[in-house]
Amino acid sequence: MVVDRVEALPDDGLPAAVAPVEAAAPVGEDPMVVIPDDAVLRIISFLPLESAIRTTVLSKEWLRLWKEDWGQKSRRYEIRARCAPSVEGLLKILEEERRLERLSVVVHTIMKSSHLREIIERSADRRVEQLHVELTNPNVVDKVRFHLPILSRVIALQHLSLRQIVVSKMRFTPQQRFNELSEICFHFVSIESYMLRNVITRCPNLRFLDLRSCFDLDAVAISPGGPKLSSLTIAGCKHLNKVNVVGVTSLRSVFYSGRFLSSFYLPRTSRRSSFTDLYICYDGPIIPMIVPSLPDEERTTQLKWLGGFRRLKELQLLMFDIKTINVFDIYAFLQSFHFPNLTKLFLQLPRIREDVQEAVREDVLQSMSEGVPEYALDNLKVVRMMNFNRTRIEMHLVRFFLRKARNINSLQLVSLFHNAIPLGLAVQQGDIIQGALASGVIQESNSGAGTTQPCHSEVFIDF
C-alpha cells in the first residue's frame, strides 16, 4: 500500500511532517507485476535475446509474458512426406494466422515454386519480420525457384535467411524495395552477382550481410552510395573472384574465408572507418607471399589502407603448414605492419603434419627474425600457440616471442600430446625458455579450455 505524503501547513510554524515510508512488498511477491503487460513486452523487445532471457529469470511474470509472446508470434514448420502439415496444409494454417513476427519453413519433401510464392504472400499478410526458408531435398532444390522481387511485398521484413535455395532471375521494378530489411543470410544459395547487387541496392537499412557457400556468385560489390553495412561475412563461395567494398566506410567487421583473391578491396581506414573485427583466411594449398613480392613503391600504394592495423589489439594467425617459408611469411607480416597496440596473439598450428621433416637451419631462422623491430610487439602480453608439437621451428618461434615481446606475461603452449616430457627437460640450461618456465611466463597444457580464448571463436577451416 502506498501512503500519500503528509505535509504541515507552511504558516503554522511547525516543521514539516515526516513522510511515511512506503510499505514494502510482501516477501515472495513479484515486484514486476505492477508494470503493464504491454510495457513489459515493449522493454523485452528492445533487449538482445541473451539479455532478455537473463531478465526473465528475475521475474516469473516477465518470463510468462516472454514465453507467451514468443509462442504466439513465432512459428517453425518442418514439411515432410506423409506427415502433417503438408505444404497445402501449411498454407491453410498461415491463412488462419493473424499476426506473425517470426516464421521458419524447412521443406524435406517435394514442393513447387508456386508454393514458395504463396508462402511469401502469406508472410506479407501476417507482417512477418523474420523469415527463414530452407529446402533439404536436392531434387527440389534444382527445380524450385525463389523469386526475390515478390519478397518486397513483405514490407515489415527485417531479417531474411535462405538456405539451399536457387534464386530466380526475375527482374525488379523501381517500386520493389526492402526498406526495413537489415540482415541477409544466404547459405548454400545459388544467386548470380547482378541479382545480389540488385537486392543490396534496394536495402537502404541493410547492416549485416552473411554469404556462405553461395553458388554462381563471382563478385560482391557495394557502391559508396549503398547501405551503411556494418558486418560482412563471405565464406566458401568457390566461384568468387572479386570483393569490392572500398566505399563502405561504415564496415566494422569483415570475415572472409576462401581462395586467394587478387581483387579484394576493403575501405581505407580513417577516422570515419576502423575495423573492430577482421578475419581473412585463404584456403589454397600455396599461399602467395603477397607482401614480400610487392615492389617498395607498389607496396606503399596498395597496402596504405592497412595503416589501421596500428589500432589492432588482437591478432589470430591460422597456419596450414609450419615450415621455414611459413615462418618467413609471419616475420614479413610483422615487419611490414607494425602493431603498437597489439596485446594478444593467437597462433593456430596445423594438427596434421607431413611425415618428412625439412632440414631447419637455425642461423637462417635467426636472421629472418632480426627484421622484426624491437618495438613492434612492445605491448604484447599474451601469446597462445595451439597444436604445439615441439618441432625445431616451433621452439624457434617460442624463443622469438620471448625475445621480441619484452612485456609478455603469458605464453600458452597447448600441446597435441598428453604424455610429452616437460618442456624444461627438452632444452639446455641457460636457454631463454628455462627462464620463462621458472618465472611462470610459459604455461603448458593439453587442452585449450583453460587458456585465453580469441574473440574470433568461429573458424571456417578445420585444422
Provide an overview of this structure.
The chain has 463 residues and is an alpha/beta fold. Among the domains are: 31-56; 286-463, Leucine-rich repeat, LRR (right-handed beta-alpha superhelix) (Alpha-Beta Horseshoe). Helix content is 27%, strand content 19%. The chain contains 14 helices and 17 strands. Strand 1, helix 4 (87-96) and strand 2 form a beta-alpha-beta unit. Helix 1 packs across helix 3. The radius of gyration is 29 Å and the shape is elongated. Residues 35-68 form the F-box domain.
Highlighted features:
nine-stranded parallel sheet, 463 residues, Leucine-rich repeat, LRR (right-handed beta-alpha superhelix), 14 helices, five-stranded parallel sheet, 27% helix, elongated, alpha/beta
Structural class: alpha/beta
Largest sheet: 9 strands, parallel
Characterize the quaternary organization of these chains: single chain
Q: What is the helix content?
A: 25-40%
Which band does the percent of strand residues land in? 15-25%
Low-confidence spans: 1-25, 285-305
Distance between the termini: 64 Å
InterPro entries: At1g61320/At1g61330-like (IPR053772), F-box-like_dom_sf (IPR036047), F-box_dom (IPR001810), LRR_At1g61320_AtMIF1 (IPR055357), LRR_dom_sf (IPR032675)
Domain At1g61320/AtMIF1 LRR: 106-413
Domain F-box: 35-68
Pfam families: F-box (PF00646), LRR_At1g61320_AtMIF1 (PF23622)
